Amino acid sequence: MLLYNIGIRFYGLAIRLAAPFNEKAREWVKGRKGWRKKLSGLFTGSDKVVWMHCASLGEFEQGRPVLERIRADHPEYKILLTFFSPSGYRIRKDYEHADAVAYLPLDTPGNVRRFLDAVRPEIAVFVKYEFWLNYLRELGRRCVPTHIVSAIFRQDSVFFRPYGGVFRKALGTFSTIFVQNRESEALLGKIGIDNVVVSGDTRFDRVAAIPENAVDIPVVARFADGTEEVLVAGSTWPQDEEIITSLLLERPHLKVIMAPHEIVPERIDRFISAFADEAVRYSDCDGGTVMSRYRVLVIDAIGLLSSVYRYGKYAYIGGGFGVGIHNTLEAATYGLPVAFGPNYSKFREAKELIALGAAASVSNIGELTGWYDNLAGNPRIYADAKAKALSYIAANKGATDKIISVIFRK
């Protein structure tokens, strides 16, 4: 623990040193200023508090079905939602199903004691990858039931390394480790961890509810109206945008709705410039904009993508030419066949969608064009891919029910 605590303090120092030069580091530091004052008085001594912690926005989406079920089924509890990353906090700081949203203070022993003294949670829920050793140790010391949901473990993670003893010990502090698959359960069993429930992935519950809760976006609806050939390119990065551009130039009948992962004006300008007056930004459109004149619509706004997929026939998911692909399930829940770049090996759902024939990995423009032409030119193949995407989502629902039944069992 000594080395861990030294490392945590150096991490905090490094972020503070980077803050003057890096926007995210600056936001991280600013968001935590005065955290004790912000938390004091949020809850009274009589409040029953559930605390859920998520690293960032992706983890929030995995924890969200559980949080919303707690709100619906157990209104006697107040809910505190915390984030480690500025990107998660920035977008969800006004989340309506939590009584308070805050940054998680750095995991030092003093911070942890003061945080838990202020919040006094009766139940703590961490999501997927969050293993803060001082928080877990102190929650265990205070006998607070602590759970982690949608966790996934791989052989190469720190828990299974010779030097991972302190992290293995932390796993024993959880009341329940809800894992996504049997492989994770087996790995944990090899190191003597048996407080495990195979519940599946809560993201399936989340995305299964998206179509019925999707919002109407009139500008996008008018853009997609009158053509079946609409590709939604979600969470794209520069290399994704390069091959999407090539696909559009080679297939002039195709329309694309692109939602970049980051709203960077210079990148959007470069993408739009390839299509001259056939491309438009969402922010430049209103009720009077004649959308039929455009082939390309760039969504330069946050929070619309999950509803935008409803207007597409095909989907391309970005990130596969970088550190890893983004959310394929938000497209699959509408029955859209999905393509993405080559870096998908750590994503179980991507591999399973490929095996089913509902998705494909592409490494270049030739492969992307081949994937599109095969679907566009063969109605039976397209219908089969669509049906398999829909059935895949339906078959994997239910994790939230299992988790709630264990956390609140009598």
Would you write up a description of this structure?
By secondary structure, the chain is of the alpha/beta class. It has 20 helices and 14 strands. The strands form two sheets. Strands 3-2-1-4-5-6-7 form a seven-stranded parallel sheet, sandwiched between helices. Helix 4 crosses helix 10. The model has no long low-confidence stretch (mean pLDDT 93).
How is this structure best summarized?
With 410 residues, this protein is an alpha/beta fold.
Write the layout of secondary structure elements.
Layout (H helix, E strand, L loop, with lengths): L1 H17 L4 H10 L2 H5 L8 E7 L2 H17 L3 E7 L2 H7 L7 E4 L5 H11 L3 E5 L5 H9 L4 E6 L13 H7 L4 E4 L2 H9 L5 E3 L3 H7 L1 H4 L4 H7 L5 E7 L1 H13 L4 E6 L4 H9 L5 E3 L14 E3 L6 H4 L5 E4 L11 H4 L5 E3 L7 H9 L2 E3 L3 H12 L2 H17 L3 H9 L3
Parallel strand pairs: 1-2, 1-4, 2-3, 4-5, 5-6, 6-7, 8-9, 8-12, 9-11, 10-11, 12-13, 13-14
Helix pairs in contact: 4-10, 4-20, 6-7
Structure characteristics:
7-stranded parallel β-sheet, alpha/beta, 14 strands, 410 residues
Shape: globular
Detail the poorly predicted runs. none
Computed Rg: 23 Å
The secondary-structure class comes to alpha/beta
Mean pLDDT over the residues: 93
